[in-house]
Amino acid sequence: MASETVHHTAMTLSEHLPILEILVPFVAAPLIVFIGRRDLAWPIAFIASAASFVIAGMLLSQVIDGSVISYQLGGWAPPLGIEYRVDTANAFVLLLVSGISTLVLPYAKASVARELPESAQTLFYALFLLCFTGLLGVTITGDAFNVFVFLEISSLSTYVLIAQGAHRDKRALTASYNYLIMGTIGATFFVIGVGFLYMATGTLNMADLADRIENQYDSRTVRAAFAFIMVGMGLKVAIFPLHLWLPNAYTYAPSAITSFLAATATKVAIYVMLRFLFSVFQPGFLAEVPTLDLILYPFAILAMFAASYTAILQRDLKRMLAYSSIGQVGYMLLGIALLSESGLMATMIHLFNHGITKAALFMGVGVYVLNGGGSFYHNLRGRGKTMPWTSAAMVVAGLSLIGVPGTAGFLSKWLLVEATLEQGLWPIALLIVASSLLAVIYVWKLIETLYLAQPAEGLQDQNVPLMMMIPLWVMALACIYFGFDTDITLSAARSAAEGLLAGSAGMR
């Protein structure tokens, strides 16, 4: 069981790390706009992201033993004031989000220069940092309404970032509009749920909420809050069939944004769902409410098969990977539905491993798009011969997506199978294996196009910028590294699972 140690704020720099994690990119974003110089926009954004990554690593090192950091904003003690609370679960996600951001930005320097006009590039980096700030804020805050505020910060900036893909394809505007509508509906449902919680408890602090609703499991207000929050976050997570916004958003957004969002946005939403399910409503509530059996189990399995099957049918690599992401969300939901330590461990590790895998895959697609003019399979024929380094990285990431032994994706799927077998759910274990076979089909389709087809005529190969290749290969090698060295991911996931299953006690 997680330690119940809480470190309170003090007048030292190390104790201010939680607020600095948010403050650095939040200040850097308007600074880019105020300076207004395109040549300084990227350096400022990169330095801010790298600083947040270092801070996230320091925070994780402090809480990986199960301890908790409580940071009080403005000197107002919770529950009256807003609290930033760091434990292993959200520190793990902070490390993922900030790490992906720090690698995507060098990639973006080269891709954005080709995809966007010079007049739009300064705004791009400012909006990128705002989106980044929102995702970090959602993850680190211990206040339920503050989650909504940061969700909106990240969402509003994301809508504009996706729309900037219109410089290459006007369909990006429609994709952004659809995401705006669906995202607004999801945020509305979420904030209504938070309002119901406030009606029932009179507080918005998550730890305080957990204590006050512990004896109100039969309350209709609490159950209504639970339903609204689940639907709202379901839209943000892109749970099948609430996923309709995701394929177009990933397909038509600028390559750097697709790489960033695919690796972080749904992962942060999964974390929020975990936090509310286990830390606010708590395992005891979940045992009484048939949500897991009636909703998460069937929708998780449906996503694993329906989304994977749809991915096979796609002729656009971006859309294929987008539907694959929806299917992979199903694995995470299945781990949650098991309501066990091993299931939550599998979810946390898959959240991390899928993040690095999808970042690598979408980075590779971005290279193909800039080099070949599009992401349709007919544009990719024979690219394994003409672009060997990019294609090799795509194969490595594709194997991780399948879950081949020796890759990061294998570990999380193996743990998920073990978690189901622990509870005697061998039919579900077989379904996990069967759905992975569908991944074999659509990944093989990509490999066949790259290596066994003749190169398309009329396509001129261009030199791939080193700034794009290095992040791509860092992510690809990470898929192998975390497949062999599992100490960090397993330790963090185990500590996170223990803290989540402890309910409100895990937040102290």
**What percent of residues are in strands?**
under 5%
Could you tell me the radius of gyration in angstroms? Answer: 22 Å
C-alpha geometry: globular
Widest beta sheet: strand line-up = 1-2-3
Model regions low in confidence, pLDDT < 50 over at least 5 residues = 1-10
Determine the fraction of residues in helical runs and give it as a percent range: over 70%
Q: What value does the average pLDDT take?
A: 86
Question: What's the end-to-end separation, in Å?
Answer: 12 Å
| Number of helical segments with 4 or more residues | 20
SS-derived structural category: mainly alpha
Q: How would a crystallographer describe the biggest sheet?
A: 3 strands, mixed
Q: How many extended strands?
A: 3
Order of helices and strands: EHHEEHHHHHHHHHHHHHHHHHH
Account of the 3D structure:
The protein is an all-alpha fold and 508 residues long. It has a domain at 291-496. The protein is 75% helix and 2% strand. It is built from 20 helices and three strands. It has a three-stranded mixed sheet. Helix 16 packs antiparallel against helix 18. It is globular.
Brief overview:
The chain is mainly α and 508 residues long. The chain is built from 20 helices and 3 strands. The protein has a 3-stranded mixed beta sheet with strand order 1-2-3.
